[in-house]
Design brief:
The complex is a heterodimer of chains A (314) and B (269). By secondary structure, chain A is of the alpha+beta class. Chain A has helices at 11-19, 67-75, 80-85, 101-114, 131-148, 159-165, 183-188, 193-198, and strands at residues 2-4, 28-31, 34-38, 43-44, 52-55, 119-123, 152-156, 169-173, 176-181, 202-211, 214-219, 224-227, 233-239, 244-247, 255-264, 267-272, 276-280, 293-298, 304-306. Chain B has 269 residues and is mainly α. The chains are: A alpha+beta (314), B mainly alpha (269).
Chain lengths: 314, 269
């Protein structure tokens, strides 16, 4: 399971509270019958009495100890089996400073497992990595976590990382759980503007008029979009960049001006004044030029009407 | 530029050269072997080693706790630790005398128990501790504050209790700073004069340390005073050199590791 939220949402505090590192906490943490925190009963186990595998952002390896000694620190005895399992056995005598980001993460996992934890807590597991290693380490971590079958709580600010690694994603904002759902549910039915923005959606405002098959939304700044969701009055819409199709401006009910076009491997990102659109490279490889006007088409089921504070959503 | 450097170096080195070349080497070595000198060496070594062990043994956990905790009045505690540093040594000696002396604040209670501290070897140890240990405490607090708190947290989640966290993580990581502070404190203790002479007196073989021997021989036998002075310089220089080597080897053995200590850790999100 992953927890996603913007910076300052309380993600790290949540993990630290579960690990017992934050003292000022009220509430209850019960794990499989073990009561770790219960402020009503005045129970607060210290970190060393909770069996957690906690990986902070830069993994927290002890720089003065070798890889083998780092792992030994947790279990009091050598664990060649764990080093083997995480494919770091050849690094047993190396110091953390000599390791790559991915290697550090595997050593930190081996050390956490030597503790025989009941739960793994991962804080921004890719925060300390550059973009290139990030993807590779994420895939590795996914494989390892699948093998372990250990309850894992991962916090990240990146929805991509969460959806790649977790079955369920909780979105938190200023310390509160906003939505708990699968990645696809978060994409199709975001509970708030913040959730939609986190998943990378375009957010646009407009006024909705109900129709037989849903609603038509007249956008601020001109143009209209059809949604399969019935709605009335002022609304905000979430539209994901990969669900927008570029078309000829003639005959399109929504047009926008191209700011720039960026190519990144197979995907092409077109930035418009109000939208960001992701298109796959066409066969002819032709893309709109900067400054040109393009038409936008979105399937009605991909135009998500966001619940707003005033409750005007259908 | 070169002139300024030459002037400063000359000013700093000239007195030392003068002391070493004051008398022929033969006389100098003879001065090392006199009874006054050997007695003073024994007293100095004994009292300084005892004070050093107490300073490290009690000061290290004290500094660790102070560096890791945040409470109201913490800055007051740190100021109290630093106070002896700015106190003139003679005033420190006087203060110790009226605290632990026979007619002092605690002296009444102590002498009722049959303990008389003033003008004993124990008084020398107390004077050295009082004057030198704040140097160590201050350095040790700073060294422990430099240890990445995340590593301490991780150690806790890996099952290490407070004692193990200190011994296995904090002390090794703060080692360079601890070693440097201990060396400076030891050198300060070895040179202690003002507080010792007021609180412990200057009795040969009992409370007369090397600096006190220099002072007492100053009138009677300048050659011998100079010989003991040279001896102190040699020992102090050796401490300085050792501490530099220790700190260097420590930092170079860590240089391959990420500079975790210096990083301001994570945004509290």
């Amino acid at each position: 399971m992953a927890i996603v939220g913007p910076s300052g949402a309380g993600k790290t505090s949540l993990l630290r509270t579960i690990a017992g590192l934050e003292r000022e906490s009220a509430g209850r943490i019960v794990l499989g019958g073990e009561r770790w925190l219960d402020s009503e009963r005045r129970i607060h186990l210290s970190p060393e009495r909770r069996r957690v595998g906690y990986l902070p952002q830069d993994y927290g390896l002890f720089p003065h100890l070798t890889v083998a000694a780092n792992v030994r620190f947790a279990g009091q005895c050598d664990r060649p089996d764990l080093l083997e399992r995480l494919e770091v056995a050849h690094l047993a005598d190396a110091r953390p400073g000599q390791l790559s980001g991915g290697e550090r993460q595997r050593v930190a996992l081996a050390r956490a497992l030597a503790r025989d934890p009941r739960v793994l807590l991962l804080d921004e597991p890719f925060g300390a990595l550059d973009a290139i290693t990030r993807r590779q380490v994420r895939d590795e971590l996914g494989d390892i976590l699948a093998q372990l079958g250990l309850p894992t709580l991962l916090v990240t600010h990146a929805f991509d990382d969460a959806s790649a690694l977790a079955q369920r994603i909780g979105v938190i904002d200023t310390g509160r759980l906003v939505q708990l759902a699968t990645a696809s549910e978060l994409l199709s039915t975001p509970a708030s503007v913040m959730v939609a923005a986190l998943t990378g959606a375009n957010i646009v405002e407009g006024t909705a008029v109900p129709t037989d098959s849903g609603s038509t939304v007249y956008l601020q700044g001109g143009g209209e979009l059809t949604s399969a969701t019935p709605a009335r009055g002022p609304v905000r819409l979430a539209v994901h960049p990969w669900q927008v199709e570029l078309a000829d401006p003639d005959g399109c009910s929504l047009t926008d001006t191209v700011l720039d076009v960026r190519r990144d491997r197979g995907a092409v990102t077109v930035r418009l004044t109000r939208f960001t659109v992701q298109v796959t490279s066409g066969e002819n490889g032709r893309h709109p030029t900067d400054g040109s006007i393009v038409g936008l088409r979105v399937a009605p089921r991909d135009v998500h009407v966001l619940p707003s504070a005033s409750g005007s959503a259908g | 530029m070169a002139l300024v450097i030459a002037a400063v170096l000359t000013f700093l080195l000239l007195p030392i050269i003068a002391l070493v070349t004051y008398q022929p080497v033969h006389d100098l070595i003879h001065g090392f072997g006199t009874k006054v000198a050997t007695d003073a060496i024994v007293v100095s070594l004994k009292t300084n080693v005892i004070a050093f062990v107490l300073m490290i043994g009690l000061g290290t956990p004290f500094s660790y706790i102070l560096a890791r905790s945040r409470f109201r009045g913490r800055s007051v505690v740190i100021t109290v630790v630093e106070l002896p540093l700015v106190m003139p040594p003679a005033v420190a000696g006087l203060a110790l005398l009226v605290a632990f002396g026979r007619f002092g604040l605690l002296g009444h209670t102590l002498s009722a128990l049959g303990i008389d501290l003033a003008f004993t070897q124990a008084a020398v140890v107390i004077a050295i501790l009082f004057v030198a240990s704040p140097i160590y405490l201050r350095g040790a607090i700073a060294a422990f504050e430099g240890v990445d708190p995340t590593l301490m947290d991780v150690a806790g989640t890996l099952g290490a209790g407070p004692a193990r966290r200190m011994l296995r993580v904090a002390i090794p990581l703060a080692g360079g700073g601890l070693g440097a502070a201990a060396a400076v404190a030891f050198a300060r203790g070895l040179g202690e004069f003002g507080a010792t002479i007021l609180f412990a007196g200057s009795f040969q073989g009992s409370t007369q340390t090397l600096p006190l021997a220099v002072y007492s021989l100053f009138d009677a036998n300048l050659d011998q005073a100079v010989a003991i002075g040279v001896m102190l310089i040699i020992v102090s220089a050796a401490i300085l050199l050792t501490s530099k080597l220790v700190v260097r080897s420590w930092t170079s053995s860590k240089s391959t590791s990420p500079s975790l200590g210096g990083r301001s850790s994570f945004a509290p999100n």
